[in-house]
User: Fold this.
Amino acid sequence: MTAARKFSAAQLMNVVLAPVVSEKSTFVADKNRQYVFRVADGATKPEIRAAIELMFKTKVDSVTVTNVKGKVRRFGRLEGRKRSWKKAYVRLAEGQEINFAATE
Assistant:
């Protein structure tokens, strides 16, 4: 049984929020075949794997998840905090690739 069959398609479409485009993420993509995504706070590794395989029709090798703490920001005298979020590093199988321009 594949990972995509355990979860509904509607549920998986809410897991991956956006790709993270930064200098570090492009370096990691070139060197390690990894792509970086912003994911829902409650997302698990199997859900992320199934969502990426469903959305981009690729084979996922592994998923690593990081919780990013929100930065502290000041508004005059008041100190606030940006929202914390979850980041997923998705390693694709050999020969697989995600082309963001070609997705619909």
In short: The longest helix spans residues 45-56. The two ends are 27 Å apart (CA to CA). The chain has a mean pLDDT of 90.
